[in-house]
Amino acid sequence: MRPITKHILAAGVAAAALMGVNAASAQEVIKFAHVVAPNTPKGQGAEFFKKRAEEILGDKVKIEIYPNSQLFDDDKVLPAILRGDVQFGAPSLAKFGKWTKKLQVYDLPFLFKDMDAVSCFQNGEKGQELLNSMSGKGLTGVGYWHNGLKQLSANKPLRAPEDAAGLKFRIQSSDVIAAQFEAIDAVPQKMAFSETYSALQTGVVDGQENTWSNIYSKKFFEVQDYITESNHGLLDYMVVTSTKWWDGLDPEIRAGLTQAMNEASDYANGLSANLTAEQRQAVIDSGETEILSVSADDFAKWQTAMKPVWDEFSGDIGQDIIDAAAACN
Ligand code: LMR
Asked: So which residues are the signal peptide here (predicted)?
């Protein structure tokens, strides 16, 4: 082989390695990073995606899953996707505020009465349009995955909104969620998911809001004396990738990944209700925390106290989007 050809080949292999492609087999190495444990709807959805993509596409792809914030916290994963350091992430819908204001709809308190209403909106016209709401920023949404409705927890019983006044709550990086806590005179503190357990344990914050699955799998219940079953908001995910990388894929690979992703979305969304019920029960059975159910009167008080947040964000989100979501109840 002439040296020049050798050099060109070596440069090609190096470039391919940088791009995550193994030149010897032309295998596409695809990284999927997320922040939760494997025994959660998102963790299971990611594993299912890997299994199906590798079954459908064989050696053409290798999917690597990095759970538990091993690679990136959610605020770092979207820039990492744009750089090509990782190909898929699935941040909670609360974490896209810097990229689009429209997805803030999902954080409005008491917007969805149950997960069927969430599915109705996500599968409907407006929900599907929102998958493309970041195309101008180079990100494409390829699916929604459920986690579930959020519960409030603290080291004192939160029965009515006034019980939360003055308490510090760890929140996801969402201005809507910050406004929601300010509406009940509490103090929101944005913080990475990976730091939440120790912030609760050391008393840096007094409480937090999350789904049963996250409260169970990250053991927040061990460091919170009370959980109020408030179901006051949603925590779901958008699986995202780089538009440039996705559009540049070999069409056969893109088709296989699309099929695997659609199947994984169905799988994760079908699993979340059972996992939520199981993990809620496991928290109750642990005996480590007291579960407070919310009477109809108190539920109305929480709703009234938090609802003004809707008006504050309707301009940014778009009233048409809010109306379409509310119509699913
Ligand atoms: C959180 O930060 O509480 C959640 O977004 C974590 C997750 O991915 O479910």
From this structure: 1-26
**Residues whose CB falls within 8 Å of the CB of residue 266, separated by 6 or more in sequence, listed in order:** none
CA-wise closest residue to 32 among 4, 59, 3, 72: 72
Element (H, E) at 319: helix 319-326
Fold annotation for 27-327:
D-Maltodextrin-Binding Protein; domain 2 (3.40.190)
| Nearest of 302, 140, 142, 329 to residue 229 by alpha carbon | 302
Return the structure tokens found at 328: 């699913």
What are the pocket residues of ligand 1 if the criterion is a CB atom closer than 6 Å to any ligand atom? 35-36, 92, 147, 172, 193, 210, 214, 235
Say if pTM beats, i.e. exceeds, 0.90.
yes
Which tens digit of pLDDT belongs to each residue from 248-265?
999 999 999 999 999 999
Distance CA 108, CA 93 (A): 11
d(CA 317, CA 127): 12
Residue with CA nearest ligand 1 atom 2: 193
